[in-house]
């Protein structure tokens, strides 16, 4: 490259300046700590779980009732190892973080050992039963997912078959990941449930917090922009469309001058059979949408709705302006 | 790993339990069936189609008028093979599915042959002409895309050049995939058109059903959250912004106690030159937005609009609350 | 494959027809031009920048204060080369494009040399100082990002730690990429800033134009569907939720019969400490949301708001319809 | 690139010239035929077989007696499919080849179908039992390999453990691949056995023809340059060193003016317990090295040797030349 | 990891010590020079050349006379670019090296520009005609290779078909690479011919110097250990077996106290139709093996042999030692 | 696939049969043990070592004296971690193996923990100083390699430059890997030195035991088939050609009825400045080839040679047979 050598000479100074910010702005670093859970490993775990939950739809083809036992047994065994390793990393990280926070620990001096053996060992011992318990629950997760698929088929007139739903519907993908992440969340596994749901969020645009409680037969159509908060309670047979927010009404809590971090109920409750149409927003921990209620598109709701009620926007008063508002010249005959 | 061997001993039982659910919840499996279309192969086909439709913008650089014929000829030839294979898989799957549905077939017994030879052969014979027809239509698709690019350039003041639009605009990416998927949809290819548009949906947040009918000069700006339903009719020179839903008004159809699966017109019609601004929602198969009409941001529309009309929300009545609603302490001087 | 040879014989004719469209619809090609910036290379640069900005969170683990200097020095050095190459490609492309536009150049004849040596060399000489300047600014970018992370922690009650925010929050990912892209934009680098923010857009659903001006302590929660236009001014300590549009009010400019391409202020200003809730839409270059104002969910705003004011939708007049609007049979007991 | 466009214009002519040679020198093409066995697929099969034959030494770690059944069951199942596919390709190719040879078929005209359905189906039906039979024999192959490993451990004083032999000894790798390839050869599978042993040849420099017959307890030390011909008979407990050739004495057959293609015995017989040292050459189908005989290094042998005999070169008459034959100046003190 | 931090602290000192050796032992570095040809790029070129020379045997399957033109045209075009780039790198490197050697240049000071523009440009201009000339000669190379394949089929009684030879014979692989490398060598391309033949050497154990001259109909059986020196002349229809060395008799040149670097004839001549059996060694630039002569296995030859002569080792005088020389206990019954 | 389901049903029985052999032939398994060193990780370490030893020749280009410190510092740091991990695995494996051998331990019962924590920790503590010591010695290794490169340049008239030797000569590649492996061998690291030299053996056909002692200025030309035994002593400035064996004379030790495993001197000594030509074989621990002696091609030597002596084969008595021994019809005019 025809580059100027004198400019390149500046790079060491730039490096030094950056390295200085690693002690100044230390919150952006993760130096001299135990390794975090590995993103690729967690993505790999999610892929393996799909193989177990929906055998025949994923990477491995030609599965049949005669070989499925081997394939699943092999996956379950390796999932045991992968889950144990990653859960142990997450637990160890949390331990360190709590310790750091407790004593507001500075960056450790270079002569200090960044890790001691004992927490290392303990974390794997705590992690393994959680990994096994998740695997134990997968059969039940499958039973719930069967109802989710059924609900999608009944709920979308464009669906041609159950196969299409499992293979193509981003809503089911997000729900599946949520259901697994929720089990890990319930088992007290830090970090990884959120990594999993953010993985789904990035792919589908559907952001379900792993802490939310969601009954079977749940269907999200299209889904982009859906947000479901940590303390939502969603009953059985609920259907959501794209852009629906089930959020906190946090800006009413202005007098304490700061946000409470924790699990108090901040997000709404949707009872069995509720339908919420596109881009509706339902906010607040005390807001309850009653059984079989329907919330229309674009509705903004901060209060409870009784069962068997339909809530829609008033027909909007539209301002109509006449005569050719769109005067961009079109490049083709109309 | 310092794991407990006794816990691992439970894994075979967990496997058995999971395998049991493969007969119980059989809708979630794809066992003892012909292979489905392959996701990676379809993604590969889409990538090749981009190379053909926008030569020089993709993987292969240094293309010029002297070598483009070889490159495209080679791609067309391999697209023929790849499309034929995947379309045949989709057709075969549909055949099996119809057969299964017809007789509500149980999981085949292990001693039954999961596939017979004849449908195997036939499907490739049906698939090939569809593959060739798609390739035949690509030249016309390019002519339409030229108008789409032109429309994007005219429609976005931030656009610097046609190159930037082809290279960076997610709206054009989604429209391109839709245009190809729509051709396959029209040729009666099951499954794959939807796989393609979901591929675009995952990447761009724009969800266009392959069944929708869309004229040339179509432009979607930003695009995240756009949903365009299966039976939409969209004219020439239409422009949409992010978050626009062109959906069904299905919750008015409550008396039949179930959704009709099929192709009756459920989604709106947008005539030539219509503009729909961000987060507007237009619903219903009878709703027609007339030529050159403009629908404002956040408008929720379930009735038709005459041509050359602008529809906006009434200026919202805002509740203004005084005095420092946001009391989070800021960490920096204001 | 059991395919019909006669059908395959048509492929050369199809190829010829496609190649013809490469001279007709020449806007869709990039033939006989200098290579564009490479998508994978730009993605690689973004990944390296994350390693430098958040060391220890990315690919390389086991970093500590003793080795971080080597690692970062090595990355800075290779970033210098990669950035110089890609910026030079972008500059060269723009030069060609301007030249082409100026003389409305046709596709060059095959016997014309598509590239000359002089612009080749010059572009790298112009590119290198821009690359070095970006690297020089990274330490300051880190200081700004520290405030962004802090703001996210204070702003989200569900956040457990700073680590979780850096590792899992799509909002921070989009902001980080924006902050780097914005520096390149300010340095007059064409094309690449937009490639970077579209990369973030595809992954997070958050679309921030690299030209926007955004103060420190910026937080976007959930984020899917957020759009921030090119000429926005956003102060310090601002918080946005999913689906917020800060856009142009372009359809008021109907009388000129075409859109002005350029940088006049088309998008709103948000002063320090503003909060905008989910799916709100704020439009127009003259619209100013004053210090510490709060804009409620779903609000559609085209006029300025004074400081310390809360703007919410009037409580919507809801139409309540009684008795079982949702009569889809549920598959489970309620 | 600063290249000359006029030179590039010649490329189409060069292409045409090459394409012409595809009809002239048609032996170097494989056009319009059924696909050959796939190299990568065969390499993949070999890798899977190593996982089955030496579990725990290969890709998959953390195997134990509790999960090995799943892992092997899963491998056996997928090996069944992979072997069936590749064996069918090999059989189909041979059928075509025989047909071609029979009628000295020219390159098929473009309008002729290159494949018909019937042979397609038949080949898989013939292939499957061969694949299953190979899998059935693997347990016995393992018993033989156990003796080979034992022989290596006894035969090499540098060997530290059985583990080292399995993990590091190229001789065992070549023998293992030979043993599997030999079974396929015996089952009448064309092409693939040779692909497998050439795979071993490329990696180890040991070239064992899959047709050779070799007893258990076989050990090759170092191995580079070893050649074992198609019709060799090697007894039990034989040991070879690098560079040993067990070849044909073909140049004695000069009067027929051409080589006989076929399986008549052209290569020597080594009875039980024979040792052959480095670079010895033993030639001829009638040459028999008797039980427990030892052939010394560099010996060239075309006649039989009785049992319990040691054959070494006569102490060579060396010409000694005095005084500093090597006068290259050394760069260091001696 | 449970590692000792104090030990890690030594790493910077170790790094400094290594960096010091980069100025001391500067011959082992390639710092501040133009980039060398890229190994992976050259391997890629070789793979593409195999696709052109043996279409249908390599990566791309389903080739037929209808699409082969596109495929080859596309390959030829990209080979033009790849070859030009790599040849230019090789030429530029040689220029620098010559310049360095001429003035015994020290490592350039950091403030000196390591490259100037002019040689950069020139090298590509010199490289391109060489690249095109190589492509131009490929049709002739194919005609020669047709004779090589024919010779292999006639020469090996174990060969089943021409297909097997092209697909499985390492000898043909090495000869093919040699034939291409030899053309480049003749065109004065430095470095790359040797990289290519070493690539073949690593894979096949056959080491043919690209400078050797070899007639058509050349066959190497098995091949491991074959060495063919730079100034060999090999006629038409020659056959070699494994371990044959055609080398220099360099140790007779002892009186000049150093080796002459250059191209004077150091290696033997083999006239048409010669056969050399396994592990024979033929040395010396004046040694000529006459037409149709045969050199037996293990023969060591430093003098010429007349045409139509067979040269074999005297039947070796073997020492036979009786009674159980091999007393290693065998683990199985004999 | 058109396969027979009944045949597939046999696969579980085949699996069971195989699993049975895992207890019978347990020497071929590595079940329920600590993981072995990882092949890919060791290959990766070797690649990193080449980057450190020959900077600028490998993967990373554009290195110069200004950035080399960062690059090498970063590599040294990660080599520390990788080496520590793999050496610990090797040590742990050896511990287990010794324990197993001592008590001839059966396969552990499923309820026994396969690993205990203490050895786990200890092995990393023993491994780390060995890893650091290797890194510490690399500067000296470089100084030795500088002499090896110099010797190659002086020893091969075909060598054009030092660059060509480092980039293309397999001999130097094998020697480099040997030099590193030898250091590890000397540090008492099990398993990994052999893995490294077998890695070189597979690629170059040169098999140097890591235990051999070899002085600086060592050159191997061509190299395929060279074998250098564990207890060789090779002085300074020695040159070997392809096919040279420096081996044991083990078959004279027949009276003990078994091979002694251990390190007693079994292989020859070559003093300073010795040259050994192609395919010579030198055997025996007592055999000493004196300073500056030359051993000719194909010589078979089991006794010592005085300094400054040349040993060549007696001019072989050749049997010449007249009249056209090679009567294969040639396909071309001679």
UniProtKB/TrEMBL annotation, chains A, B, C, D, E, F:
The keyword Acyltransferase applies. Residues 101-122 are annotated as: Disordered. It comes from Gemmata palustris. Gene3D superfamilies: Hexapeptide repeat proteins, serine acetyltransferase, domain 1. Keywords: Acyltransferase, Amino-acid biosynthesis, Transferase. SUPFAM superfamilies: Trimeric LpxA-like enzymes. This is Serine acetyltransferase.
């Amino acid at each position: 490259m025809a580059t100027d050598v004198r400019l390149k000479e500046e790079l060491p100074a730039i490096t030094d300046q950056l390295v200085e910010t690693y002690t100044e702005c230390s919150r952006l670093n993760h130096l001299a700590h135990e390794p975090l859970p590995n993103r690729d490993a967690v993505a790999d775990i999610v892929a393996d779980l799909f193989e177990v939950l929906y055998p025949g739809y994923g990477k491995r083809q030609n599965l049949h009732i005669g070989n499925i036992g081997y394939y699943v047994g092999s996956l379950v065994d390796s999932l045991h190892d992968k889950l144990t390793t990653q859960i142990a990393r997450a637990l160890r990280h949390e331990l360190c973080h709590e310790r750091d926070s407790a004593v507001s620990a500075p960056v450790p001096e270079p002569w200090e050992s960044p890790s001691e053996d004992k927490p290392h060992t303990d974390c794997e011992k705590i992690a393994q039963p959680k990994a096994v318990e998740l695997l134990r629950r997968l059969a039940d997760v499958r039973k719930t997912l069967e109802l989710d698929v059924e609900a999608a088929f009944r709920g979308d007139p464009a669906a041609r078959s159950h196969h299409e739903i499992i293979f193509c519907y981003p809503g089911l993908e997000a729900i599946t990941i949520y259901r697994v992440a929720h089990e890990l969340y319930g088992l007290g596994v830090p970090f990884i449930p959120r990594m999993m749901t953010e993985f789904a969020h990035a792919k589908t645009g559907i952001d379900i917090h792993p802490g939310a409680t969601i009954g079977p037969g749940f269907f999200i159509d299209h889904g982009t922009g859906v947000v479901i908060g940590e303390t939502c309670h969603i009953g059985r047979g609920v259907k959501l469309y794209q852009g629906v927010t089930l959020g906190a009404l946090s800006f009413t809590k202005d007098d304490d001058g700061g946000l409470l971090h924790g699990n108090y109920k901040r997000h709404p409750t949707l009872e069995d059979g509720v339908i919420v149409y596109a881009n509706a927003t339902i906010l607040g921990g005390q807001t309850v949408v009653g059984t079989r209620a329907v919330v229309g598109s674009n509705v903004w709701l901060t209060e409870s709705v009784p069962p068997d009620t339909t809530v829609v926007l008033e027909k909007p008063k539209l301002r109509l302006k006449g005569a050719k508002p769109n005067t961009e010249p079109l490049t083709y005959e109309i």
